[in-house]
Amino acid sequence: MLLVACAPPVLAQQPPPPAPAPVTPEDEAELRRLTEQLAALKEAYAQDVRRLRELDMQVQALQARLPGKAAAATVPAPAQPAAPAAPAAQTPRPEPAQPQAPARPPEGYAGTADDAERARQEMSRSVTDVKEQTRTLFDQRVVFENGLTYNRYDRKQLTLNGFLALDAIFLGNIAIENVESDTLSYNAGLRWGVSPRLTLNLDVPYIARKTVYQKGGAGGAAAAIAQEHSSGHGLGDITASANVRLFNERGWRPDTVLNVGITAPTGREPYGIPWTVLERDDDDFIRFAVPDEQPTGNGVWQASVGLSAVKTSDPAILFANAGMTYSKRGSFDDIDNNPVTVNPGDVKLGNSYYFGAGVAFAFNERTSLSISLSDRLSARARTRYRGGPWTKVIGSDANAAMFNLGVTYALSPNATLVGLLGIGLTPDAPDFTLGFKVPYTL
User: Fold this and answer.
1) Using an 8 Å Cβ cutoff, are 313 and 290 in contact?
2) Which of 360, 366, 332, 326 is nearest to 346 (CA)?
3) What is the distance between the alpha carbons of residues 11 and 9, in angstroms, rounded to a whole number?
4) Is 218 a residue whose pLDDT tops 50?
5) Would you list the domain boundaries of the chain?
6) pLDDT digits (tens, 9 = 90+) for 198-216
7) What is the CATH T-level fold of the domain 122-441, as seen in this structure?
8) Whole-angstrom Cα distance, residue 262 to residue 376?
């Protein structure tokens, strides 16, 4: 057998890869120019997307109100410009192909029509909830609202019945009066969007109230305190109102809405309620008496008119309102709280003027926080016994200022939870107010 030894073939030597080209100042300047162009295009793209969202919302609102029209089409995604080809200065050795991850749009920008539509719905929900609370929303057809509100009122008054001796010694009776009132109100509301510029509202309240009366100096003794309470519940005064959009938000001009309403005296009026006498003095004058039940309404027709304005400045929402309430004169069979007499007559409640302003912040697509200050000024009421002159009721004027905090949270695409906390700033305002509302959109 013949064995032949073969030498292994000599491998050809390959040249080393070319060294990368040195970076020149021209390349750095070109990189900075391209980076600035990219940033400018991103900013322009973001503005176009925001504008598309606003236009899409307006189109959907109009198409939803026109019979026989299909749902609004989604906004087409803007065409993605092709990336410019890099200048081929040299032809490098081809590298093995690596799997590339799909390109993702920059954070905060929509890459497709579905992304733009989803972002539009998320960013507009918080703004929508705030506008719904300020009665400046007109793109909802029917809204049912359930609300529960608790008010706490506590007022103390010192009564002196006597005279000063030697300008330093008080001779007479000292009495301390304290009134504590707790009110729980349930409100069923209905909002009907008739057109993009008109919304009709109906509010039906049910009120339960308990008031505790305390009087110091009972029986002539300064340390003795008498206490009694009364309560009442029933239907409150029903209000029908309308919101009319005057101007749309554009540039510096805010959304401006005219609010008009009428309140019917469907609740129990505070006139003609029997009073129970608990204490009389030596001259048979009434010292302490309480009503047998608590009223649930004002007893007179009222009309209100006002203006509301809302300006969005992402992420803040500015809002303000102002208006007045006019009370019509009412006639009653008895306007005296004396339990042993009946005196028919007329009552004219004082007109009231209200104003307020605040700001809301949309934290995310589901939550927003609002801070506001509101005030209501009421003039003195007047009464007139049948056949007699008008007299002003001392102490019936009021200045009720409130500091308000509100939170909205989207429970579902159709329901929102609204929490409200009001803190009284003046003696005529409630000590605090706590409320919850759940508007449900059909």
Assistant:
1) no
2) 332
3) 6
4) yes
5) 122-441
6) 999 999 999 999 998 887 7
7) Lipocalin (2.40.128)
8) 18
